[in-house]
Amino acid sequence: MTWLVVGLGNPGDKYAATRHNVGQMVIDELVSRHNVKLSSHKSRTHIAAFKLGVGVDAHPVIVAKSHSFMNETGGPIKALANFYSVEPQKVIALHDELDIPFAAIRTKIAGGDNGHNGLKSMTSAFGTAEYYRVRLGIGRPMGEQDPGDFVLKAFSKVEQKDLGEFIVRGADVVESLINEGLERTQTRYNS
Questions:
Q1: How confident is the model at residue 191 (pLDDT cuts 50, 70, 90)?
Q2: What range defines the domain where residue 58 resides?
Q3: CA dist 11 to 25, 63, 81, 127, Å?
Q4: Annotated binding site for tRNA: which residue ranges?
């Protein structure tokens, strides 16, 4: 069974280094780690494919970034899932999470969207919330800053010191989820 791993975010250089695109940063790490390249797909996504594991036990994996903005992510991701015959239960959405401290990671399957427009769009397009989420903590803004503005800003200088390790752990979590399942991944990585 093929897995589809989706990094939620906004397209273009303007947003590439923002907190909202941390899921796409993890996709970049997976692409680099598995020595593959993203290419354009007719579903309005950039994708790459690799096998995780060896021999007959290897898992086929498609990683993807949408060309669409966050609130329109669902359509392209659903089209990609349909193209590769991937059921929602084999989809992993990587996304920023305001309600988790910076660099903390939580995994789960299903649940609400907690106001996250990318998850809202995916749930609407799939007609179900029964897909995996890797929730990448970005913390809440200090003081009066609007959360909508906060997620569209780059990580602070202090956060950038730990960002690389955070992204690497995010990729480790994805691989663990595919290879070892949710319960073991939660035990090992849910901080």
A1: low
A2: 3-189
A3: 12, 16, 20, 24
A4: 15, 69, 71, 117
Helix (H) / strand (E) containing 106: strand 105-109
What 3-state class would DSSP assign to 175?
Answer: helix
CA–CA distance, 81 with 128 (Å, rounded to integer): 13
pTM for the predicted model, two decimal places = 0.95
| Known binding-site residue numbers | 15, 69, 71, 117
Q: What CATH number is given to the structural domain containing 48?
A: 3.40.50.1470
In b/e form, how buried is each residue of 138-148, taking b as 16+ CB within 10 angstroms? bbebeeeeeee
Of all helices (H) and strands (E), which one includes residue 167?
Answer: helix 157-180
Which residues form the catalytic set? 20
Number of domains making up the chain:
1
Residue 146 has pLDDT above 90, yes or no: no
More confident residue, 55 or 48: 48
